[in-house]
Amino acid sequence: MIAGLSAAILWSIGSMLIGLIHEPNVNSRVMQAFRLPVTLALLLLSNLFVTGAFWTVDITNAAWGWLLLSGVIGLALGDIFLFGSYRYIGPRLGMLLMVCAPLVSAVLAWIFLGEASTGGQLLGMAITLGGVGWVISDRNSVTARPEYSNYGLGILFGVLAAVGQGVGALMTRMAFETGEISALNATLVRMIGGMLAIWLILLVNREFIKSHVTLWQEKRATGLLFITAFFGPFIGVWLSSVAFKTIHLGVASTLLALPPVFMIPIGVYVFKEKVSWQSIVGTLVAIGGVAILFLV
Predict the structure, then answer these.
(1) Phi and psi of 21, rounded to 5°?
(2) Which of 292, 294, 295 is nearest to 131 (CA)?
(3) What is the extent of the structural domain holding 186?
(4) Residue 115 lies in a domain
(5) The model's pTM
(6) What's the pLDDT tens digit per position in 23-82?
(7) Is 130 exposed, middle or buried (0-12, 13-18, 19+ CB in 10 A)?
(8) Which of 82, 166, 206, 240 is deepest in the core (most CB within 10 A)?
């Protein structure tokens, strides 16, 4: 539980730093093209420190498949949409939409694992969606910011990011079900899947060289991205893997859905957003719904 809560705090810090990147050429694909390889290098160094070797992954083919897919969907595509939502509606509201990820996990667990939802869990889903919907209906605090120009697209990207994280969480759990896997090894394989997916997207869009030239030119943005790589995909995802492995998936997902609460004061003091009582109460209601969803 400490791992899950720590990951949520670190993701909040990382989201704040990404929200400070305003360079137009540094889009979500460019961000991931830098963050994922840097994170993979940090994980390999960590593995060397822990085990004495850079590479000690010894898992089944099934686990490889689940973890690679988890990296593609959860780390590559999911974060691309999440960073896109930050561009259009800001980190606070973008992170709030991520509380829908546990709902996605619950629905997928019901479909693929036969874990039917109880009446209390259905109530939690309804409360969560109601809280999120209440905050989304309060557009004034976001649309007042001139750089947040496309509210509808930002909401869509946030929802897609939540779906990506929910699917990634389920696939990570499926990998752990195949046998004994360390959280560090699982994170390494997930990062490889995400990195390969990002590189493929850049190659298809003919942006591979351009993205790295942009990173070389935008020193401030690159520095912030390095810090976010340390807090988010490196330490944060590692800790989230520990949470997924050691505690109930629903409890872990609930803890990992807490960043919107931490983002409220960040939105006020860092991004100068006008956060209304409706947004605050709606955020707390949404988090409460997530807790009910998995803890009843």
Answers:
(1) -90, 110
(2) 292
(3) 2-98+147-260
(4) no
(5) 0.80
(6) 878 888 888 888 889 988 988 998 888 888 888 788 889 999 999 999 999 989 998 999
(7) middle
(8) 240
